[in-house]
Every structure is written in C-alpha cells, then in structure tokens.
Amino acid sequence: MPRTGGVYSPPAGTKGTPNTTIQSVPYNSFVDDLTADANAARPVTAGGTGATSASGARTALGTDDAGNITTGTFNDARLPLTQSGKVFTSSTFLKGSASRWWGFIDNTDILRGALGYDPALAGLFMNLHDATGTFVTGLSLRQNGAITWGGNTVWHAGNDGAGSGLDADLLDANDSSFYRNASNINAGTMDDARLPITQAGKVFTTSALLKGTVSRWWGFVDNSDILRGSVGYNPTTSTIFLNLHDGAGAFVTGLALSQAGSIAWGGNTVWHSGNDGTGSGLDADRLRSLLPDFNVNPNTVPTRGGSSEIQAAYVYNPATGVTFGSDGNIYGGTFWGAAGGLYNWLNANKAGVYTASTRDELNFPIGHTVLVSTSNSYDRNVAVTLYLNGTAYYSPTVSGTALSGTWRSRGNFTGQGYAFERVS
Question: What's the whole-model pTM score?
Fold first, then answer.
C-alpha cells in the first residue's frame, strides 16, 4: 500500500480480532505490503533519503545545491584553486609574517601584475611583469612616507618644494620660457632698479603720478636727448607749466596754469569766458567774427567816425524786425509791410493832400474828397466804386476808368449829389 504524504498506514482488514482465527490471505497481503514498504525508498519526511541511490539521495535531500548550506565553514581543501570573479561584502586579508601577494596572471598562467605587502620592508608594492613573468617596474609605498616608481622618487605636496630636488618640465602648466617673458608677470610690483631708463611708449590705464615737494617734470626729448618740451608742476607757486624748448634745449615759451585761476602764454594773459568782458583789457581784432569799420561796409562792426558819428548803411533789430534804412525810411516787416516802410505806410494809410494837377488822376491819397453828381440815393458811409465821367465829373455808374482804392459816401448835398472820401 503506498504511503500518504510519506506516512505508512496498514491495509484495511489486516488487524486481528481477539478470540478469532487469523485469515491467511489478509495476513499474507499485510506481510507483502510491509515487505514492499521496507524495500522501497523511505521518504525524507519519514527519516529516509527519498531515493535508492547516492545521487538521488543528494538531490532529494538538496545537498547537491550549495545554496542550501546555511551553517558551518568549508574546509579550505574543499575550495577550488581556480574560481570565477567574486564579490566580497567584507574585508579580505592575506595573512602571514612573510610577504603576501595578490597576483594577476594571463590565460597561460604567466604572472603579469602583483599587489603585495612585505612586512620586513613595511611597504606595499604594485608590480608589473613582462610576458615571461619577469619583474619590469613597480610602485612602492613605504610606511616611512617614501613613494617610488621604478625606484624613482614620486613627488607630492608633502615632499616637493625648495630642496626637494624636483626638476619639473612645466610650472603651473607653463615651461621656463613663459616665466622669462615679462608680459606674463601679473602680480606684485617690479623693483624700480629693474626698470630701464629708456623705454618705448606705454599706455597707462590708471593715473601716473610724479611725487615730491619740489618741481617735478615730464619731459620730451629728441633722438639726440635734447629737451624739446616739458610738462611740470611747481608746488611752491601751485602752477602747472607746459613749456617749449629750442634745438639746443633752451626754454622758448610756455603756458602757465595757476591754481589762482590765471593763465599765461609766454607771460601774456590768456583770455577765456571767466576773465574777459568789461575791464578785462582784452583787445580783440574782431567782434563775433566781424571786423570794425568806419565806413559803410557789409559784415563789419560800425565804429564812430571823426565826429563821433556811427556810420552804417542801415540799423536792423532782429528781435522786432525793424530796420532804420540809409534812405531815412523805417522798415518794419510785420509792422508796416515787408517792403514799404513806415514812410510808405504812412503815405498809404494816412490822410494826405493831393497837390498834383493831372486831370484824369485815378490814385488819390487817403482822405481825399470828391463830389459826385448823381440822382442815385446812398446811405451815409456806404462804399461805392467811382469812375471818371467826361472831363469834369465823377460818377457811380460805369462811364470811364475806375478810381483806385475804397470810397465811402459822406453825405448828400441839396439833392444834387454826394461827397465821397477815399478811405483805403
């Protein structure tokens, strides 16, 4: 009878009943069942291996899966000499009183690299080997602080500097030619003794000062070192000088700017808007670019003649537009017409007396009165156009040539006609 869940149960009907005869068939079946169970592989749940062979037992018990080994420690002899890569989650040590090494070999088992510690030398070593396994070179880290590569000292921040013996090809990424180029000096101040007496032109981006309690000068010399010009300051007189010198270096003339406000050129006062004007003594050749002239000439400044008169073709006031003309007329633009002048305006706009004798005169002065014989009726002061009529009359009807200007009726007389006055 098969086991259920690994548990054996006798076949039904095999148990005996007291005071009864044991039946041979059930009994024999029970014995055969026990025999079969005893010869079959005992299940793991019943304390067996679940198999009839060693490999089957290892499989059934899980002993062929290293993942099922959760306790104890493998004997070192059980570990293979050749293993694939591993990840160690804690520190790994090489133990011993003699040198111990981690080695790196190629596929032909030739040592190509090694990392080791020698307790006698108190140093770590990283070595490189050639294709035959022969040592070539290596890095040595000593407990006393020394570092060597191939037997040569390795430099670092703790052993470089003065007296270290370090022979660098570059300094701050620059070779020695960089530091022999003065253009690359960008800090500190050059000692005055290092500056040459003769220099090429310079561009100063900040103020350049001459310091001292006595006069100080900027000079300008020619190729023969002859002084031709100079700019200086005298602290005693508080004056700046700009001087010119001749071919022998002798002073010729100069401009002096005094802190008191005066300016002199060659010892002569220089005029400006702060010291010219009345009482200044300035003797100008021109006034507003115009020359003085006693005569009546254009673009000149009129001056008094021998009799204290001012001679000019006309006098013009640009503010009012009024011109006093040489013809005695006064011209006033918007006042009296652009071209007519005061005289002509008075003639044209004020009452005048006609003194001529032309029979057929058409243009009478303003204020002139004529008598018009007409049977027409006109209101007082009405404007009427008048015409010549024959050789003796004026008429309001078209009979001849019209008179110039505007004429207004000034009243009727005895029913015979009207008096008309020219008003413009």
Answer: 0.35
